[in-house]
């Protein structure tokens, strides 16, 4: 048997992403992430439009919306746990097999949601089961992004790591497009039919998507960096304890930097959907605008990731964060207009800025941790940022608006503070572009 190439050689072969093997790897990263986030973000759209009426109808309009967004938060709360669990096995036993398990788990939970009776049929057990399934979703998606990102990044040439890692990032907005269009299509049904059975169809379609995703994912090889790690005689420790013991600063900086990404998502794609519809905007028009904005985000993810390979992760992310702070109040004003066009402008601007920050974020977090703990460290940074940024943002936004009597001043001020904190974290982080991943300790 021929000796295996070193990881640095294998990942840089040809210095190109345009090979048959790399195209398969990037497709696996993108499509697998798309499917997982279709499932996870489908819930967000349903929480904004359906679950307050199907599972919390007896709670009153105001509290029902808060409760529906609260169950949304439950999934985000458990994402770091999923990152720690799947990261542990991904760092100990390899990236590929862990990704297969996360996809199967997510698909099963989503399909069961589509079959779950409402409160009118089985009473209080309905929202309890909904929350339990949302927790399973959170754990499953917690392990997805880190593995999908590393499968691409650890196979890629050094000078194109940012772009390669962004294929997992592109999967999230692409999944949002698919999920939003699926709900938009069934929302054309009369309200009674939409709320009784129409909303369930997109959830059940997950089974088909999972089969497609597994067919692609099973053909991808383990990463050369992990294979090289397997050949060393180094004693394997518990990845979570290593991250907390040896890289706590990088973990915290990664989390705070990423919160900006998810606060944008929580405001413009979840809370604002419900707020705009309640203010008078057409439901289907809002959903279509949201889908179009997610497509815009895919484009900005690609562009910013490519720019990060040339100018560095920090400079590109800082540009996005500062721009988002400047645009916070204009976005909120547009959402509050009560028109489809107002919401459309707000969500396109918000998701475009989100993509600028998000594009380099995969490489940004991966370059903070060594190979032996990279899955765990990157996953914890990303998933914790999602918990604090998107998991609680819709409920907090609703609460701040209620406390201020409908004024956006308090919400806008708090939102800007989040962007400032993220900017400081990015400035305090060392630039990772060009860093040799095999020498990070």
Automatic annotation (TrEMBL):
Membrane topology: Multi-pass membrane protein
Annotated TM spans: 25-51, 63-86, 98-116, 122-142, 163-185, 197-216, 251-273, 285-304, 316-335, 341-368, 380-402, 408-428
Superkingdom of origin: Bacteria
Xref: InterPro entries: MFS, MFS_dom, MFS_trans_sf, Sugar_transporter_CS
Pfam family, one: MFS_1
GO cellular-component term (any): plasma membrane
GO molecular function: transmembrane transporter activity
Keyword terms: Cell membrane, Membrane, Transmembrane, Transmembrane helix, Transport
Domain Major facilitator superfamily (MFS) profile: 25-433
Localization per record: Cell membrane
Protein name per the record: MFS transporter
Annotated organism of origin: Saccharopolyspora terrae
């Amino acid at each position: 048997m021929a000796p295996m190439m070193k990881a640095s050689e294998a990942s840089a072969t040809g210095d190109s992403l345009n090979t048959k093997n790399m195209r398969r790897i990037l497709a696996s990263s993108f499509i697998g992430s798309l499917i997982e986030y279709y499932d996870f973000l489908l819930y967000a759209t349903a929480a904004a439009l359906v679950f307050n009426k199907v599972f919390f109808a007896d709670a009153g309009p105001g509290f029902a919306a808060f409760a529906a967004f609260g169950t949304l938060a439950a999934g985000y709360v458990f994402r770091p746990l999923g990152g720690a669990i799947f990261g542990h096995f991904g760092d100990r036993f390899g990236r590929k097999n862990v990704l297969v398990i996360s996809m199967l788990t997510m698909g099963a939970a989503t399909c069961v949601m589509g079959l779950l009776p409402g409160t009118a049929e089985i009473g209080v057990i309905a929202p309890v089961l909904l929350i339990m399934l949302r927790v399973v979703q959170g754990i499953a998606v917690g392990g997805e992004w880190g593995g999908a990102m590393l499968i691409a990044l650890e196979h890629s040439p050094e000078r194109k790591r940012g772009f390669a890692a962004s294929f997992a990032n592109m999967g999230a907005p692409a999944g949002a497009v698919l999920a939003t269009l699926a709900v938009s299509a069934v929302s054309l049904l009369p309200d009674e039919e939409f709320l009784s059975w129409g909303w369930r169809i997109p959830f059940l379609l997950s089974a088909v998507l999972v089969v497609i995703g597994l067919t692609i994912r099973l053909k991808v090889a383990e990463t050369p960096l992990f294979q090289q790690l397997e050949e060393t005689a180094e004693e394997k420790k518990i990845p979570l304890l290593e991250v907390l013991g040896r890289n706590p600063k990088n973990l915290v900086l990664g989390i705070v930097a990423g919160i900006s990404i998810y606060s944008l998502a929580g405001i413009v794609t979840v809370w604002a959907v419900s707020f705009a519809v309640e203010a008078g905007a057409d439901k289907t028009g809002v959903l279509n605008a949201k889908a179009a904005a997610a497509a815009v985000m895919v484009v900005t993810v690609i562009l910013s990731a490519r720019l990060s390979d040339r100018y560095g992760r920090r400079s590109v992310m800082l540009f996005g964060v500062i721009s988002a702070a400047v645009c916070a109040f204009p976005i909120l004003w547009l959402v509050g207009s009560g028109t489809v066009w107002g919401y459309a402008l707000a969500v396109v601007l918000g998701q475009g800025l989100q993509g600028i920050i998000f594009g380099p974020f995969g490489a940004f977090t991966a370059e903070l941790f060594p190979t032996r703990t990279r899955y765990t460290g990157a996953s914890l940074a990303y998933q914790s940022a999602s918990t604090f940024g998107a998991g609680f943002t819709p409920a907090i936004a609703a609460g701040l608006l209620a406390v201020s009597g409908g004024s956006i001043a308090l919400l806008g001020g708090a939102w800007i503070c989040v962007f400032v904190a993220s900017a400081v974290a990015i400035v305090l982080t060392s630039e990772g572009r060009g860093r040799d991943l095999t020498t990070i300790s």
